[in-house]
Amino acid sequence: MNKNLVRRRNATKRMGPRIPSAVRRLSNALCFGVARSDCVTFKEIDRREELSYKEFEEGYLYANRPVVVRGALRKWKALSRWTPEFFKTEFGGMKFSIADHEKGQPDYRGDGGTEYTMAQFIDRVLSSTDENPAPYFRNKKMYDLFPSLKQDIEPLPEYCFPNWLAECHLVKHVREALNRAAAIELYIGCQGGAFPVLHYDGIGTHAFLMQIYGRKKFIIFPPSQAGHLYPRPGKQNFSQIDIDKPDLKRFPLYANAVPTTFVLEPGELLFVPSHWWHTTKMLTPSITISVNTANQSNWQELIEFVAMRQPNPFVSLASRAYLTGAGAWRAWRDRNWSKSVN
């Protein structure tokens, strides 16, 4: 084969070709010898115990396939300490505002609404019913609000690494967006409470959900079913579907959607891959930690998400070029670091 052609092909693999993302995802998958699961539906989610990082990487991370890992949080003090009563006792005077009625609303962070003290909020959580649920304390920056609790959730499971979101990036708007997305977030919910909208996480990131207290039901769909889920105009990672009461007259294709439903138990970790649609409902009072990640497995999705949302074409092109180069360098660094420790 022509040597120049070989060099061009190798450079394309390293830097990420400018081809449709579906083709790019397939290319990424083939480089790692696995088939991605973007188009696959599952009756039951895989539940694994003692899952090695290599097994996770090959079977789930690069396959873009969700998995629940049992016992992943066994080293965390939070498992034996964190309860609704704990937060009431330790932080009862803390004040915050939460949106009361946000079903289907596009406010992803759930801010605004009624002001509560933590003690008042926990009382509502504990007296909540399916018919009259308390508001959802969600997407709150863990280390900003509760820095003293950092040691309770260390170390983070190894599956959450590497995480290129949390690193220093030279371009300011990229650095701010990615570092913000990497923040560890806390969720405290009640029986009957739910996340307000079916969605996939922004910037093309993976999500790790770690259940500390209570039981939480998840409903997930693979990326290939987006056409049945009616993405919201102008907010493409939010669905217009009300999972509890779908309007099939307005959204007839939803009848063809095939969800996977399961319950996350205390001490379990859930990996939700890039572009997988998901939402939740609490079966009991619930406490959850989440972290979003990006690395070589989903960096191209992140590039597309960031570049396509820049109103200025030049900024879009510059963002794409910078992120492509940054990803290539980090992939090279991670490969060489891995070789040095093995």
Descriptive tags:
342 residues; alpha+beta; Jelly Rolls; seven-stranded mixed β-sheet; three-stranded antiparallel β-sheet; 11 helices; 33% helix
Q: What does this entry look like structurally?
A:
This protein has 342 residues and is of the alpha+beta class. It has a single domain, classed as Jelly Rolls (Sandwich). The protein is 33% helix and 20% strand. The protein is built from 11 helices and 14 strands. It has helices at 3-15, 21-31, 53-61, 78-81, 84-91, 118-127, 142-145, 172-181, 226-229, 299-308, 313-341; strands at 46-49, 67-70, 95-98, 114-117, 137-141, 185-189, 206-213, 216-221, 231-232, 235-239, 260-264, 269-272, 277-282, 286-293. The strands form 4 sheets. Strands 1-2-12-7-14-6-5 form a 7-stranded mixed sheet. A hairpin with a 2-residue loop joins strand 9 (231-232) and strand 10 (235-239). The longest helix is centred in the last third of the chain and has 29 residues, at 313-341. It is globular, with a radius of gyration of 21 Å. The two termini are 34 Å apart. Residues 2-34 have low confidence and may be disordered.
Low-confidence stretches: 2-34
Determine and state the CATH class: Mainly Beta
Structural class: alpha+beta
CATH architecture: Sandwich
Kindly report the name of the CATH homologous superfamily.
Cupin
CATH topology: Jelly Rolls
What characteristic shape results from the CA principal axes? globular
Instruction: Give the biggest sheet.
Output: 7 strands, mixed
> If you compute it from the alpha carbons, what radius of gyration comes out, rounded to the nearest whole angstrom?
21 Å
Overall average residue pLDDT: 87
The strand line-up of the biggest sheet is 1-2-12-7-14-6-5
Portion of residues within helices: 25-40%
